[in-house]
């Protein structure tokens, strides 16, 4: 199977400092209390795709003001840095399958400055009105000078102002270091599904149908149709025995959407890393065995290293016991904080099963 990353050491990121995950396996389960750093670890792992490009960091930003339409990226980038540190610094290093160490750093300096109002409008891509053309208002603003360093060499620098809401600067077009695919807990409800790779493979397609029959035993097929000639995005429709016409995939519940998202994400992550945050979200317990088994078996075929986070004792147990032949490829990492320090307890699969079943130890 795949071990694209052997270990990762996080020096500073959000609420994490000096966390070291060693002996990473093909399948890695991260668990622990809320705010122990599980999601943060996945976020940093996802930046390994293009650590030298600002687009990779923009993908892990969390909205600073939920419910507001505008996103102020200055505030969201500010939240990447540890709140208890004086310096604006994020740093981690990882060792890959070839035992090569890569060190990644994101540094920032904050400057109080002023800009002409027309300059602010230009940065936002807005047109000036006739009134604004007649005046040169000076506006107070803050500028974040961002630098990305890889292995001690400055790769990129950016300027980000506190009023900016445009995303064009975050386009990521550079070649990947390690291919990563990150799936958030609610991505099935908010994102689009892309099944093209699965629909092109008879093997993956047949397995997908078998799994989806756990959600609806009458399913016959899933197809991509072009319903809007002005859109390049297809609509996926499901043909079943109990309906005369095909139904839009979006008409189905979250459980089926989440299963399809996981399957398509795994295929997309071929030869790379799949990061599943709270992977069991929306998957009913009756479908866990088939979905999890397929993911873990297919990860081996596709050379994909898997990282999972979960709060669910049942879901963790399902993964640990779903395939006996895969148990040597599974590790469990329990993250916790003690006296302000980030710590980790590491177990292999058999140790975790024994601790949970025989010793009554809570893995979460």
Which short descriptors sum up this protein?
364 residues, alpha/beta, Rossmann fold, six-stranded mixed beta sheet, 12 helices, 31% strand, globular
The CATH topology label of the largest domain is Rossmann fold
Distance between the termini: 26 Å
Shape-level CATH architecture of the largest domain: 3-Layer(aba) Sandwich
What's the main sheet like? Answer: 6 strands, antiparallel
- Apparent shape: globular
The rounded Rg comes to: 23 Å
Strand order of the largest sheet: 2-1-4-5-6-7
Q: Kindly report the name of the CATH homologous superfamily of the largest domain.
A: P-loop containing nucleotide triphosphate hydrolases
Question: What is the total domain count?
Answer: 3
Number of H- or I-type helical stretches? 12
- What order do the helices and strands follow? EEEHHHEEHHEEEHHHEEEHEHEHEEH
Task: Report helical residue fraction.
Answer: 25-40%
Poorly predicted sequence stretches spanning 5 or more consecutive residues: none
Assess the beta-strand content as a share of residues: 25-35%
Structural class call reads alpha/beta
The CATH class of the largest domain is identified as Alpha Beta
Give me the count of strands: 15
How does this structure look, described?
The chain is an alpha/beta fold. It folds into three domains: 25-50 and 176-215 and 253-364, Rossmann fold (3-Layer(aba) Sandwich); 51-174, no CATH class; 217-251, no CATH class. Helices cover 28% and strands 31% of the residues. It has twelve helices and 15 strands. It has helices at 38-46, 54-58, 73-78, 117-123, 130-133, 187-190, 196-199, 202-212, 254-268, 285-302, 313-321, 349-357, and strands spanning 5-13, 16-21, 27-32, 88-96, 101-116, 138-150, 153-161, 180-183, 219-225, 235-240, 247-248, 273-276, 305-309, 330-338, 341-348. Strands 2-1-4-5-6-7 form a six-stranded antiparallel beta sheet. It has a six-stranded mixed beta sheet with strand order 8-12-13-3-14-15, with helices on both faces. Helix 10 packs across helix 11. The radius of gyration is 23 Å and the shape is globular. The model has no long low-confidence stretch (mean pLDDT 86).
